[in-house]
Amino acid sequence: MSGGAEPDGRPTAGRGVAWLGTRDEQTRELMDAADADPVMLAKTYERFALVNAVVSGERAVYRDWVRPRLSPVWGTRLLDVGTGSADLPRRLLRWAHAEGLRLEVTAIDPDARAIAWARAQPAVPGLELVQTTSSVLADAGEHYDLVLSNHVLHHLDGQEFGALLADSERLAEFGGTVVHGDIERSRLGYAGFALGTLPFAPNLLRGSYIRADGLTSIRRSHTARELAAVLPAGWRVRRAFPSRLEVVWQADAAGRPR
């Protein structure tokens, strides 16, 4: 397995990207540590919006999955799982409201630090921030028209991955759509992120975990073939730009996968 990374994003032990042929399940993102530096953590949350605007395909998510479900008359309920800084739901709400379309977002994260930071930002109409998990909401009988996540899957072990998919089916069982977007592990993607963030390491990204954790995230991520081999019946994997994968499940009104 691969080594870790220094806070500035330099790999430890001087290893190259040859490891990317195998998923690195051992190395953990620095920001996930219980003792993560609070100042660096806050800077990381602050910079998420800039980085995700480039690497997360948010406009395409809105165009392909969110906007087709919206209406100026009835409200659409969306659940954002593992919201982090809540930059994704804020953008989705802004785009929907700009078009006069009704959208309500519940953004959840089990990490109290993330929810506290997100709540400290200016309020956005239609956004509810909750420290909880998908399992708690599913057990409570909650249902949503859309269930999304962004860069969550690579954080999970096998049991957690399966539990999230099962929760998602329950949460969207009455005609809903689930889209879990994540990075696709590849040498090209790793090199692109490493080189693309290098000029910003001493300035824009300085004092954050963005670069180090971004490289770790790519090593922890899956390939399309790996995901297709483990997805339950009714799920499919879809490639998206740039170097992204979408794990998709859709149900009809009777709760049957379609």
Tell me what the structure shows.
By secondary structure, this protein is an alpha/beta fold. The chain has one domain (33-250): Rossmann fold (3-Layer(aba) Sandwich). It contains nine helices and seven strands, in the order H-H-E-H-E-H-E-H-E-H-E-H-H-H-E-E. It has helices at residues 38-55, 58-66, 87-98, 112-119, 134-139, 158-171, 187-197, 210-220, 224-230; strands at residues 76-81, 103-108, 127-130, 146-150, 177-183, 236-240, 244-250. Strand 6 (236-240) and strand 7 (244-250) form a beta hairpin. Helix 2 crosses helix 3 and helix 7 packs antiparallel against helix 8 (210-220). It is globular and about 50 Å long. The N and C termini lie far apart (38 Å). The model is unreliable at 1-17 (pLDDT under 50).
Decide which structural class fits the backbone: alpha/beta
Main beta sheet: 7 strands, mixed
Radius of gyration: 18 Å
Question: Which fold name fills CATH's third level, the topology?
Answer: Rossmann fold
Q: How many angstroms separate the termini? A: 38 Å
E-strand count: 7
Order of helices and strands: HHEHEHEHEHEHHHEE
Overall mean pLDDT? 91
Stretches where pLDDT falls below 50 for ≥5 residues? 1-17
Task: Give a quick precis of the structure.
Residues 1-17 have low confidence and may be disordered.
Task: Give me the secondary-structure topology.
Elements: H1 38-55, H2 58-66, E1 76-81, H3 87-98, E2 103-108, H4 112-119, E3 127-130, H5 134-139, E4 146-150, H6 158-171, E5 177-183, H7 187-197, H8 210-220, H9 224-230, E6 236-240, E7 244-250
Parallel strand pairs: 1-2, 1-4, 2-3, 4-5
Antiparallel strand pairs: 5-7, 6-7
Helix pairs in contact: 2-3, 7-8
